[in-house]
Amino acid sequence: MAAAMNYHRSVKRFISASVLVCLVLLAACNSGAHPPRIGSAAPEFTITDSQRTVALNQFQGKPVVLNFWATWCPPCIQEMPSLVQLQKQLGDQVTIIAVSEDEDDSAYKQFVRDHNVDLLTVRDTKQKTNGLYGTTGFPETFVIDRTGKIVRKFIGPQEWTSPEIVDYLKKM
Hints:
Blueprint: H1 2-29, E1 46-48, E2 53-55, E3 64-69, H2 74-90, E4 95-100, H3 105-114, E5 120-123, H4 128-133, E6 140-144, E7 150-155, H5 163-171
Parallel strand pairs: 3-4, 4-5
Antiparallel strand pairs: 1-2, 3-6, 6-7
């Protein structure tokens, strides 16, 4: 009888400890800064590199396509021509901001020259901005509407001149 009671106490302790561990793990998953979600206000930022200063609030009242990329990222290289083409196609209807995470200024400038990157690009060497947006890799792109809300997020390379994306952006 005593052995059975000890067994039941051990099982209860094990279950209690397991529940406690699960609660601690769930709480840990829910702590810290959360990446902004669709429909929430886009985090404000100001980035200054060797060539310019870019702040999100400069584009208030206008849709923004905020792209995070790097010169060493093959999918970023793959999608860059279509981002450039999209900016040409939409003109001043939308602003594309391409935030490079490159530390090497000369490699960044060489890439922009070699690939004819004719859109607003700025280098954020400390990766503070992509931290604000909770990016997990490159490329990642956020579409921000005229009111400053995040309305879409794209993970991975996109064909930015596809009719679906162009129509979506034109309607904004």
